[in-house]
Amino acid sequence: MTVRVAMWSGPRNISTAMMRSFESRADTVVVDEPLYAHYLAVTGIDHPGRDAILASQPTRWQEVAAALTGPLPGSPAVQYQKHMAHHLLPEIGRDWLGGLTHAFLIRDPSHVVTSYARVRGEPTLEDLGYPQQVEIFRAFGGPVVDAADVLRDPEGTLRRLCAGLGFAFDPAMLSWAPGPRDSDGVWAPFWYAAVRASTGFAAYDPSPADVPERLRPLVEAALPYYEELAARRL
User: Fold this and answer.
1) Which band of pLDDT confidence, cut at 50, 70 and 90, is reported for residue 87?
2) Helix locations, the chain, DSSP H
3) CA nearest to 112, candidates 218, 224, 227, 11
4) Maximal C-alpha separation, the chain
5) Confidence of residue 117 (pLDDT cuts 50, 70, 90)
6) Which value, to the nearest 10 degrees, does the dihedral of the CA atoms of residues 46, 51, 53, 57 take?
7) Which of 72, 105, 156, 215 has the most crowded Cβ, counting Cβ within 10 A?
8) In this structure, are residues 150 and 14 in contact, taking their beta carbons and an 8 Å threshold?
9) Mean pLDDT of all residues belonging to the chain
10) What number of CA atoms fall less than 13 Å from residue 138's CA on the CB side?
11) Count of beta carbons in the 10 Å neighbourhood of residue 17
12) How many domains, in total, are found in the chain?
């Protein structure tokens, strides 16, 4: 029976590196941001590669949900679904989420906001995905890992994560070959340059974030959500 891992992350995190890590397992298939096209279709947001994204995925969330919970060719031991939490819009039904095993990748909002501001000047709390992560966690639970812990101790953190998901850690998760993957979303050329050049998780950088003054209230708004999840991290 396949373990369907829904990993919920916000933007400007190590979510793509984590997807690479799981894809390095011989028993795992990955799905890259399956709700992205629906998110763009409903919100009308103009992201790089918008037309290609809309053409590459179903734009109805019901079709996405059916694919993520339906039969899988080859019956892999693990299906790893990389989700951006902000793609889970309010009108999307939640019942289908009960068929998944949830996990959460979090990051200190001061670093998220500082990084996000470089690519989009005025992010909102909903853009960062913290409220959605907390909503899913409260409803379904699941292991929580902090990006800082992954980068400080990849093997130890991944061992705890795999144990929390109900399967064994594989040392193959610690490295991967550089380059693109067929599993990458069509948006990869715009966002995945660093990951495509990588062969493993980046070194941990302990430098504090330099949050722009105008965005400090956003960090304060995100902190209670982050702290609720961080208190439960592995």
Assistant:
1) very high
2) 15-23, 36-43, 50-56, 61-69, 109-119, 125-128, 130-140, 147-152, 154-165, 188-191, 193-197, 216-230
3) 11
4) 51
5) confident
6) 120
7) 105
8) yes
9) 96
10) 8
11) 21
12) 1
Q: What is the pTM of this model?
A: 0.97
Rg of the chain's alpha carbons, rounded to an integer? 17
Contact indicator for 68, 130 with CB cutoff of 8 Å: no
- Return d(Cα 215, Cα 217) in angstroms, integer: 5
Contact 162, 168 (CB under 8 A): yes
So what's the pLDDT on residue 119?
A: 79
| pLDDT exceeds cutoff 80 at 120 | no
Structural domain for 30, as ranges = 3-230
Q: Rounded CA gap, 216 and 116, in Å?
A: 13
Residue pair 174/151 in contact (Cβ under 8 Å)? The answer is no
- CATH assignment at residue 32: 3.40.50.300
